[in-house]
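Deliverable D4.2, example record:
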Amino acid sequence: EAIEAVGKATYDMIFMDYHMPEVDGLTATREIRAREALLGKAQIPIIAVTANAFPEDQARCMAAGMNDYLSKPFFEAQIAGMLQKWLPRARDRREATRAV
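Output generated by the structure prediction step:
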């Protein structure tokens, strides 16, 4: 559903769960990144959300193309920090793509 949704609408950021029932977050992220590259679109910031808090889990998320990592449980301030960090970059990327 996440992959289809990204194909139908524009998003500023995606919080992607690592574990999902049919397609895991790593696979979904790889598919989204492949479509962005194919279409020449700016990358949407994708933030991993997972209870897996080991360094190797974070490395898997980054290798799949995610931009950042948030482990559960998390606090409102952590979400706010992600929004402050990544939303301005998302706008900058969109504007750079439009200018080309």
